[in-house]
Please model this.
Amino acid sequence: MSRTLRSIAVFCGSNTGAGDTYLNAARDLGEAIGKAGVTLVYGGTHKGLMGVLADAALRAGGRVHGVITKRLADQGHLHERLTKHEIVDGMRLRKLRMAEEADAFVALPGGIGTLEEFMEVWTLNQLGDFDKPAGLFDVNGYYQPFMGFIDHMIAERFLPAAHRGSIVLESDPARLLEGLATFERTTVPKWM
Model:
């Protein structure tokens, strides 16, 4: 089975992280999304990995839809060169709009906001509220400690083992996009 992915929401840091590794990864993912003809949906800022991602997608000929909060836009964080941007009243509405606009989700490395956004869409998939694949771009093993915690949840019987595979985990942008396009939803109930 292959899905048609018209748009992918990417959650990522508004900081750049240590060194050039994460910057280069954001650039590579943005370029891959742009070249694939998929619209990038993201947090709408020019800051950090978010700005690098958006700029790379635009340079590759892609469309970029930013969704930013009014507070951040008022502070000068709005990326002015996007194909489309929305200014919304708060983070809840921002996440809702991104979820409505996206056919799939990816988390690049980032902080607690990135992880919170990703966990929400993973949970919505787990509960069956929607069927939109989610993936982690595991740059330089960034998400391995997190997956270790997921394994701990499984060992302690808070998460069925099948749900570990209910996301795409890749370190290569092309394989990540392919994994999202061919993803099949986990149907094992969440209750043990």
The chain has a mean pLDDT of 96. The first helix runs from residue 21 to 35.
